Amino acid sequence: MAPPIYSALIISLGLGTTMTFASTHWYLAWMGIEINTLAIIPLMSQNHTPRATEATTKYFFAQATASATLLFASISNAFLTGEWDILQTPNTLTSSLITLALAMKIGLAPLHSWMPEVMQGLSLLNGLILSTWQKLAPLYLIYQIQPTNSNIFITLGLLSIIVGGWGGFNQVQLRKILAYSSIAHLGWMILILSFSPPLALLTILIYLLMTFSLFSSFMLTRTTHINSLATTWAKIPILTISTPLVLLSLGGLPPLTGFMPKWLILQELTKQDLAPIAALAALSSLFSLYFYLRLSYAMTLTMPPNNPAGTLPWRLNTRHNTTMMSLTTTSTICLLPVTPAIMALLPF
Amino acid sequence: MTPAHFAFSSAFMLGLAGLAFHRTHFISALLCLEGLMLSLFIALSLWTELFNLTHNSASMPMILLAFSACEAGTGLALLVATTRTHSTNRLKNLNLLQC
Predict the structure, then answer these.
(1) What sign has the CA pseudo-torsion B75, B77, B80, B83?
(2) Domain segments of chain A: what residues?
(3) What percentage of residues in chain A have a pLDDT greater than 90?
(4) Contact residues, chain A, for B67 at CB < 8 Å
(5) Which of A268, A330, B33, B48 is the most buried if burial means most Cβ atoms within 10 Å?
(6) How many angstroms separate the CA of residue A335 from the nearest CA in chain B?
(7) In the prediction, which pLDDT does B1 show?
(8) Do A64 and B44 touch (CB under 8 A)?
(9) Which residues in chain A have their CB less than 8 angstroms from residue B81's CB?
(10) What's the predicted TM-score (pTM) here?
């Protein structure tokens, strides 16, 4: 793509999220989300392959519908209460409709059907932008609603954790697995949102770190299938150590960082007398752990009897820029001991 | 719920149902999307007329129109791209990404 157009699109992507972050009026927040959607569509379809075009089309429909519903709910709120202020959205029907529209934007169950197929059709870099940057603006708006009625959030959260785990069971394509992992993690986040919004913020930050690290590892070897993961040992052996640890961190195993949000969420839910919901969430995240373990198994714990994968590639000196990947991978593996410091930084 | 609110709400719900249940053609989905935006345009104009009597945010419907036009243009560009790659605008043909 021509550099002026590419830079205009990247700047628009930043502008959209910044507008939503800076707004207190629902209309301006909606405009920021629309700018984000419009800016990423050319980036997603720049390949002009059938898969990329199809993924872009499905993404466009899902996001346009959700944006229109968001604006409809805001206008209904203005008709009913006269308020356009985001922090003043009282808990009526319109607040639930806004939550559902934003849930469709980020791909929570039961509004998640577009997510795996869209992620499958994109390149790994576009998939990374889709899972990390595009989630920021709607999540900020959900965070600001400050709900007191928790039913819809618990429903969305539990459904997303179950669907995110169960849906990824049969997948061998890495991008679909990443889509289902995104659904599950955002389910954990929205489960705790009505009880402790700072914990939801912690969950989303840790999720962004872990997803960035995993996408960077896959971009380094350009793998999109479990089969090509299995030959990573011959190309970049260090990845067979770091990527399984990142995957287990995504699964939420101590002593890795991914355990931190799950632990704190289960503790908070128990304090709110919702121990059965906490148990259901913890048991449902075992599904996700299964397919993360399967990826780790394929990558590290299998070795072919002969060495065809190791004989062919040339060992050339390549210049990969691994700064962000090393930072995020280190954070994904080593941040659990500093949990008290992180908790002190958030406004608990 | 005032009659104006009911009017644009039902228009929006009909458009949303059309968008959710479209079965054959891509372009019918785009038309329903435009219908959604039109109902929202009418809603914003009605809000300005009925409730915001100082008219200090009377530019809201026009900005909505600008964004809706951009979105319609994007939708049509995607329609053209889909027709180029999948050779048809039938939605049943968008089945490459299932496996």
Answers:
(1) negative
(2) 1-139, 149-305+322-347
(3) 76
(4) 31, 34
(5) B33
(6) 36
(7) 76
(8) no
(9) 45, 48, 53, 56-57
(10) 0.94
What's the whole-number mean pLDDT along residues A158-186?
A: 94
Chain A residues at the B interface, defined by Cβ less than 8 Å, are 27, 31, 34, 37-38, 41, 45, 48-51, 53-58, 60-61, 64-65, 68-69, 71-72, 75-76, 78-80, 82, 117-118, 120-121
Mean pLDDT of A316-332: 86
Closest CA to A287 of A213, A184, A218: A184
Give the model's pLDDT for residue B56: 87
Q: Which residue of B has its CA nearest to A225?
A: B99
φ/ψ of B74, rounded to 5, equals: -65, -40
User: What are the structural domain ranges in chain B?
Assistant: 3-88
Which residues from A are below 8 Å from B58, CB to CB?
A: none
The answer to whether the beta carbons of residues A270 and A278 sit under 8 Å apart is yes
Locate the DSSP E strands across chain B: none
Here the tokens at position A21 are 């972050």
Q: Rounded CA gap, A130 and A123, in Å?
A: 10
In tens, the pLDDT along B50-96 reads 888 888 888 999 999 999 999 999 999 999 999 999 988 888 888 88
CATH code given to domain B3-88? 1.10.287.3510
**A304 has a pLDDT exceeding 80:** no
Give residue A42's identity as a one-letter amino acid code.
Answer: P
Distance CA A147, CA A332 (A): 30
ipTM of the complex: 0.96
Contact between A68 and B97 using a beta-carbon 8 Å cutoff: no
